[in-house]
Design a protein that fits this description.
Length: 348
């Protein structure tokens, strides 16, 4: 898939409008009191020794590289799930984006305690950023890993703060969680802590694979349906598919070939539902109405995975199982594993 193409988001596909660069940049610069000149603040001698080992750091990304000279104190996250890794590393973002009208704080069980009573400012929805609000927060660093940030947006933000855009070697919304976590950890000067987090999650995945070696022989697909007659199957670059792959399941490559270039979802009509006739089929849906509608589809009833009751309907929220493996972060993965393992085990 081409990195430069517009990807599908994991639940919806939506065009991202371009930013009015010149006007917004002028406002942003006035709000922050300057452009790219770095501050010459003098840290204490005690703090300086600790910081010198980590900074400056240079992080490569889709739009070049960014050098961060000192430990960031105010961080804004623009990736849909970036806040989780930042929180896991002990920093509360001052700004974050909204994921489909779902507050990124105070709701998800895996992150609620880390936010506490300090919510972030909402500075956009998905890839539509409110540059004025971001500028008003005067951040030291903006992180956009699980995002579709455009070059115009990156250039505008870079006029008044440091920006680490999405990984360059992967399509937008297609980088493994380990890659995005390492990018975030490096930008925050916390490489060692980051590796410990990643090692811990990797160990949890391995423990499940060791416990269920039979899963390695099973093919699994993840799907959803938002309206009658229309279905979505997620490709190998989608976080949901990545999650189940790391549990040990095999993915179905035919789904990848059916997706549009740069997208992480294949759109299916009822006539193409046979691609979902796998050993394990996981539907992640938002309502019982959607579940009933899928089950009532005549062509779906013909699939052996349905007839043998090897399909699993997992709620997106309440409980937040689907949301946890949709985020697929260092914070949400342990929760997702604990919730999904007994459900998968119950499917024969």
């Amino acid at each position: 898939m081409s990195i430069g193409t517009r990807p599908a988001l994991t639940r919806f596909v939506r065009n991202v409008p371009r930013v009015a660069v010149a006007a917004v940049a002028a406002l942003a610069l006035s709000a922050c009191g300057g452009g790219t000149e770095k501050s010459e603040s003098k840290p204490s001698a005690e703090a300086g020794a600790a910081k010198s080992a980590a900074f400056p750091v240079t992080v490569d990304h889709k739009y070049g590289s960014t050098t961060i000279d000192a430990e960031p104190k105010k961080v804004v996250t623009l990736g849909l799930s970036d806040q989780d890794a930042v929180l896991a590393l002990g920093i509360k973002p001052v700004g974050s984006v909204d994921w489909f009208k779902e507050d990124p704080y105070g709701k998800w069980p895996w992150a609620k305690d880390k936010w506490g009573d300090t919510p972030p400012q909402i500075v956009g929805e998905r890839d539509e950023y409110n540059i004025e609000k971001i500028a008003a927060l005067k951040p030291d660093l903006v992180i956009a890993q699980y995002s579709g940030m455009k070059k115009e947006q990156y250039d505008t933000l870079s006029k008044f703060t440091k920006v680490v855009a999405q990984p360059k070697e992967h399509p937008d919304y297609g980088a493994p969680w380990q890659v995005m976590t390492r990018q975030i950890g490096k930008a925050l000067g916390k490489d060692a802590e980051t590796e410990k987090l990643i090692d811990g999650v990797d160990a949890q995945f391995k423990a499940v694979r060791d416990k269920h070696p039979e899963w390695a022989t099973k093919t699994l697909a993840v799907a959803d349906s938002f309206e009658a007659g229309k279905y979505s199957a997620f490709t190998k670059t989608d976080p949901k598919s990545i999650f189940f792959s790391e549990l040990g399941f095999k993915l179905k490559p035919e789904i990848d070939t059916m997706a549009k270039p740069g997208w992480n979802v294949a759109e299916l009509s009822a006539e193409k539902l046979n691609v979902l006739d796998v050993d394990r089929l996981v539907w992640v849906t938002s309502s019982t109405e959607a579940n009933d509608r899928i089950k009532a589809e005549p062509l779906y009833k013909k699939l052996k995975v349905n007839q043998d009751k090897r399909d699993l309907f997992v709620p997106y929220q309440d409980p937040d199982i689907g949301a946890a493996f949709s985020f697929n972060t260092v914070l949400s993965i342990p929760y997702a594993i604990d919730e999904i393992e007994p459900l998968l085990t119950a499917v024969k």
